[in-house]
Design goal:
Four copies of one chain form a homotetramer. Chain A is mainly α and about 120 residues long. The first copy, chain A, has six helices and one strand. In chain A, helix 1 (about 5-20) crosses helix 4 and helix 2 (about 30-45) runs antiparallel to helix 4 (about 60-85). Chain A starts with a strand and ends in an 11-residue tail after the last helix. Chains in contact: A-B, A-C, A-D, B-C, B-D, C-D. Chains A and B meet through strand 1, helix 1, helix 2, helix 3 and helix 4 of A and strand 1, helix 1, helix 2, helix 3 and helix 4 of B. Strand 1 of chain C pairs antiparallel with strand 1 (about 5) of chain D, so a sheet runs across the interface.
Chain lengths: ~120, ~120, ~120, ~120
């Protein structure tokens, strides 16, 4: 069984949701980038006092809360991409190709340095 | 033509990317939530001094940079969800159902108040 | 009347607060940087759907909430600086001197471009 | 020797800095809250792949970079507080009094739970 996200279908539902509430006036890319950051930080909050090890074995309750925040981030990301007409597949593929160039595995093996830190 | 994200396929590529670089040691959910926030803020940075109106009509160059940041956020979101075994479709559908309940259109029409602000 | 922050005194109170609760175990710089970001985003949340104009004329209630978030950010910033032994005066003065160099007023007058965008 | 921040003096210098560059037009509280979040995330970035232990023993170079980001957060915090006429001493004292109430030491000793999680 495969996990597929139908971005067009979700975008259409988000568009209808905003239309029905007259919320398009609030959904400038500027504002949506703020809302996305707020949700990303609510995700961060769940992990702030956990050790890395603890973050790998969340309780069922905690995981459910984390899932909700992940959904919120994704919802604003899809909404923003719809308004800016960003093709998410193209964007992800381009970025992954760039990352493969910036981080050649023989050079960065086992290291977390930023690519600007390699000479 | 429809925009579909094959989450399993992207997850598999991200897993291979991390494996080849011995980066799994860095990819705890805690760390990934931090990386996701860093990318979300790089997205925010593009909009910080723009008016809302300007954020709606980005130059081609600026839009290309914004797309890269959107891709980065999405990549970390998919990677985190893979590690936590979050079903993104389920998460999005549940959250959208919850939002419909929290924000009935007749009550919130044209208003951006948080649902906790409605009595 | 002058506004003075006695950083040493506040740091000492924050240290006592953590000691009394056995919270030093949680206050690694990594974790404190996360907590600071969470608070910074709670500040952001108050402004996300406001126009810039509206953000300049907050209601008394809203302003009180914003003040609380500003305090939270400052508290974590002072706590983090105490642990890392950062001299905040020195840090601010050095950064302001650097900013004066990076952004000469005749070059950036009326423009919000990042210094990397000036040739 | 005591560490004192003269907020009025720093505010005045930041005001002059913005005036000389005609930057007041960009410094709405909304935009400043965004800039503050961007800087807070640049601080976060330094810690994202470090263990908590590593974050406690930064190299001299890394610490210098972290100091710069701390300064950036503080600068935007002071600038925002100046524009909103927030008294930082009052704000910090009020919040610390509230925290003492929300987190009684006998109840939260050694625990990092959020106050809403205590019944």
């Amino acid at each position: 069984m495969s996990q597929i996200l139908d971005i067009d279908e979700i975008s259409a539902r988000l568009r209808a949701f905003a239309d029905e509430r007259d919320w398009n006036q609030f959904h400038s890319p500027k504002n949506l980038s703020m809302a996305l950051n707020v949700e990303a930080s609510e995700l961060l909050e769940h992990f702030q006092w956990l050790t890395e090890q603890q973050s790998l074995s969340l309780t069922k309750d905690k995981l459910a809360q984390v899932e909700t925040e992940i959904a919120d981030v994704l919802i604003y990301l899809i909404r923003l991409s719809d308004i800016l007409k960003v093709d998410l597949n193209l964007a992800v593929n381009s970025k992954m190709a760039l990352n493969a160039q910036k981080y050649p595995s023989d050079k960065v093996y086992g290291s977390s340095k930023k690519y600007t830190e390699y000479e």
